[in-house]
Design brief:
This protein is an alpha/beta fold. It has a single domain, classed as Aldolase class I (TIM Barrel). Helix content is 41%, strand content 15%. The protein has an 8-stranded parallel beta barrel, surrounded by 6 helices. It starts with a strand and ends with a helix. It binds 2-phosphoglycolic acid. The site of 2-phosphoglycolic acid has 13 residues, from β8.
């Protein structure tokens, strides 16, 4: 298996002092010597602070969202080029909290992913079914319909989008609930996403398929069994990413499975 990717999504949490303490703990944990890729996504106002703190570190910097356009009259928004200039390597797009709270639909999410790739960033496209779709057993349908607009965006980008992104599967009912999906359940959906990727980008060899992550109530106690899944390329971590020892434990578990 290849290296796993562990991303900490800090959401709307942090302060100058708390960020500094957390980053110092993470960068002194020896993760650079381990076979794992790790990233943190702070609120955008702290990206410049973290870019400074992460100088010379292997820990990658990411943003939580990006606008699809390059510049213009979009008050409050941030472009992909701005993120790249600050030192970001990746950006989350389509997180369920953005979809729910900011009305971002799957077409828009695909456009954001495309803008990210064009600026040299790795888009992490988040998908996942609602509690209702979960109850109705419609998780694969929900996820593939969220992925669908990526096919047209990939064609528009001459096939370069799907080979340069990451998909994060986050069942909405598992986010922040303390109850992660079971490995069996996660495996079914991750395999479905990999099949969709293989069908949509047939030129990609199996070992070149984008990494597919799981997110939703990941903790040190369940990280290992999720990472052991054949299709699991890493984890997107919310609450546990704010606690240095927990995030380090999850990254260490991922290194053990590389
Ligand atoms: P959680 O959040 O780990 O707190 O469930 C995950 C996410 O929303 O990315």
């Amino acid at each position: 298996m290849s290296r796993k990717l562990i991303i900490g999504n800090w959401k709307m949490n942090g302060s100058l002092a708390a960020n500094e303490a957390l980053v110092r703990a993470l960068t002194s944990a020896g993760l650079a010597e381990k076979p794992v890729d790790c990233a943190v996504c702070p609120p955008s106002v702290y990206l410049a602070q973290l870019a400074g703190l992460l100088q010379g570190s292997s820990l990658m910097l990411g943003a939580q969202t990006v606008h699809a356009r390059e510049n213009g009259a979009f008050t409050g928004d941030i472009s992909a080029a701005m993120l790249a200039e600050l030192g970001c390597k990746l950006v989350l797009v389509g997180h369920s909290e953005r979809r729910a709270g900011h009305g971002e639909g799957s077409e828009q999410v695909a456009a954001q992913a495309l803008a990210a790739v064009r600026a040299g960033l790795l888009p992490v496209v988040c998908v996942g079914e609602s509690a209702d779709d979960h109850d109705a057993g419609l998780m694969q349908d929900a996820v593939t319909s969220q992925l669908a607009p990526l096919a047209a965006a990939n064609a528009e980008a001459g096939g370069t989008l799907l080979e340069n992104l990451v998909i994060a599967y986050e069942p909405i009912w598992a986010i922040g609930s303390g109850e992660a999906a079971t490995p069996q359940y996660v495996s079914v959906v991750l395999e479905c996403i990999r099949e969709w990727l293989a069908e949509t980008a047939p030129a990609l060899e199996e070992d070149k398929l984008p990494r597919v992550l799981y997110g939703g109530s990941v903790r040190p106690g369940n990280a290992g069994e999720l990472l052991a899944l054949h299709a699991c390329g890493g984890l997107l971590v919310g609450g546990a990413a704010l606690v240095a020892e927990e995030f380090i434990a999850i990254c260490t578990a991922a290194a053990a499975q590389a």
